[in-house]
Write a structure and sequence with these properties.
Blueprint: H1 2-21, H2 31-44, H3 56-62, H4 65-68, H5 77-81, H6 84-93, H7 97-127, H8 129-140, H9 143-149, H10 155-171, H11 178-188, H12 196-211, H13 215-240, H14 249-253, E1 267-269, E2 272-274, H15 281-289, H16 292-308, H17 313-333, H18 345-353, H19 357-360, H20 364-384, H21 417-426, E3 433-435, H22 455-463, E4 471-475, H23 476-482, E5 496-498, E6 502-506
Parallel strand pairs: 3-4
Antiparallel strand pairs: 1-2, 4-6, 5-6
Length: about 500
Amino acid sequence: MRYTAIAIALIIAFWIQLFLALPKLSATSDEIVHLPAGYTYWTTRDFRLNPEHPPLAKLVAALPLLFLKPQVDMNSHEWIAGDEYLFGYRFIYGNDADRLLFWGRLPMTLLAALGAVVVFLWARDMFGPAAGLFALGLCAFSPNLLAHGMLVTTDVPVAVFATLAAYLFWKSGLKSTLAVGLAAGAAMASKFSAAILPVILVGFSVWHIYCAADRRKQALLELKQLAVAGIGCIVVIEAAYLFSAPPWTYLANMKYLNGNHNPIRMFYLFGDFSRTGWWYYFLLAFLVKATIPLLLTIVLAAIQFTAKRFIDPLGESLLLIVAISFVAVVMAGADDMGVRYLLPIFPLLFIWGSRIVVELKRKTVGIALLVLLVLWQARAAVGAFPNYIPYFNEIAGGSRSGIQYLDDSNVDWGQGMKMAADYVRSRHLGPVEILPFSTFDNPRYYGIQRPERNDLDTYQVMTAAERHAGIYIVSSHHLIRVMRVRPEWDPRNAIDRIGDAMWVYRF
């Protein structure tokens, strides 16, 4: 009972952090598309917007909007043409943007909290209640999960449902069941990367057949179990399309994956640019974005594993196989744009890493180390609030040094526009030059006065030989590029930072 009470407190603490942070952030780049798309799915049964991602997470987020009844122009050119960004921009800012974002993000926080519950249950069931609390502590104060757990995006939902599917698969004795199929279907209906889950289920079934004394009998049993799970999976995916699209729509839409990404984009890693990216991008990104307590936990778990092998061979094998599979899929198919693509492995690492508790809890110094790791994790989360997106660990030098390593959603994703407006208003600044993350960030909506020029014009002003006097607010994502053209944009010359994501200069 004591362990359960502490677990409930940690889950509530996780949710409270998300709830308190969500109204402080303006719309991120993907939310501009995902929330309006989900609303149109519900109201039109038309899935033309954002086909590069399955519908489930967007439907969950948009459900409260059905009661708000926001204004939407279904006769607009953007809707007819399927221009998801322009349609989404007008949908969000043609209504009360903060109200839509609050209610759209709220279900996401509950979904993230469900993921924390699964982390506790699996670690507890595999390694004991103390391990469950340790894994939950790392999860509840993970800046990476907190950064995206409140957003209307697909990254945390796929992490939650994939972990749930794997947990149910383990609880059933590595057998495919209807519950496993439903959870796997929810993961697949959230993000295409979860399509690796059926491959894993089939792989374990083949292994069961190979190890069986009566392979024919086992094959029939496995096929029956896979069929049940498969039916559940298909039903969930079809339900995500509101039973309004043929079953092959899911597979057909995979061709749109990464289809909206800029083909001439320059990827950025540790000070270098590349048009093709790096095969090791996500490995390095993980090293600077994951917390030190998580990294130490992984190292300690690996050392313990080397010395004493598996504690739970089936469960740990499943955890590692699912985690490695997601890493392989991301490294092979995702653009080098953000550690958020690796979010599905974070809950799995919290669970597997909690194996160290089995040994360490037997000694006072071990207990002290476990408490230290959780408190260190909590300090990282509390220190980052509410600016979890630009979090970098101490080895990397913290959020201030993040632009030395990564760009895009690792440093700024458009979430700081409300904070920038508060900054300008509280200091009674007049018109400012602002270069936001995206042209869809809409600083004027929040009252920021700026000269009559677009973002490209602002970029040209900033890179011109003759400096234009004034106050400049620059997204970290763009500062990385501007500072390489004109040295005066060195971060050391900035007079302030906003939300750890935008830099302020005075010339």
